[in-house]
From TrEMBL:
Belongs to the PanB family. It catalyses: (6R)-5,10-methylene-5,6,7,8-tetrahydrofolate + 3-methyl-2-oxobutanoate + H2O = 2-dehydropantoate + (6S)-5,6,7,8-tetrahydrofolate. One of its GO terms (biological process) is pantothenate biosynthetic process. This is 3-methyl-2-oxobutanoate hydroxymethyltransferase. Keywords: Transferase. It comes from Escallonia rubra. Pathway: Cofactor biosynthesis; (R)-pantothenate biosynthesis; (R)-pantoate from 3-methyl-2-oxobutanoate: step 1/2.
Length: 154
């Protein structure tokens, strides 16, 4: 009987400890630097102030919702969504095959989760070489469809 009670107590204590471990809040699982003001969106003025103070300005590339969540929680200043998604996400050998529509899908996914960083979108190679009017049209199209983008990289 005493052996049974001892085993029962050990099993109960193990069950309690594993139960407590599974209730850890998600934000405590992901460590790293936290932004000073998480609700404030990064602007050019903010970046200029950091530069004048000699503080580092951070920029990271993200292609999808999960990576942008981590980028946002880490306090990154600038998020770049670039055409290298063609190789990293889609498995192509170069950045040439990605289309503007595919880039917009990546840009929208990042914009849904990255609330703080300055967002920079990339126009794929070959979409703007024919004329300056085409560049203007594409930039307006990208900025209209990706509401949170502040900059377009050519």
């Amino acid at each position: 009987m005493s052996l049974f009670r001892t085993l029962a107590k050990r099993c109960t204590s193990l069950a309690r400890s594993s139960r407590y471990m599974s209730n850890i809040p998600e934000d405590s699982v992901y460590g790293g630097p936290k932004p000073q003001n998480h609700n404030q969106r990064v602007t050019l003025t903010h970046l200029r102030q950091k530069h004048r103070k000699g503080e580092p300005i951070t920029m990271v590339t993200a292609y999808d919702y999960p990576s942008a969540i981590h980028l946002d929680s880490a306090g990154i200043d600038i998020c770049l969504v670039e055409d290298s998604a063609s190789m990293v996400v889609h498995g192509h050998d170069t950045t040439l095959p990605i289309t503007l529509d595919e880039m917009l899908v990546h840009c929208r996914a990042v914009a849904r989760s990255a609330k703080r960083p300055l967002l920079v979108g990339d126009l794929p190679f070959g979409t703007y070489e024919s004329s300056s009017h085409q560049v203007e049209f594409l930039c307006v199209t990208v900025l209209n469809s990706w509401k949170k983008a502040e900059f377009i990289r050519l």
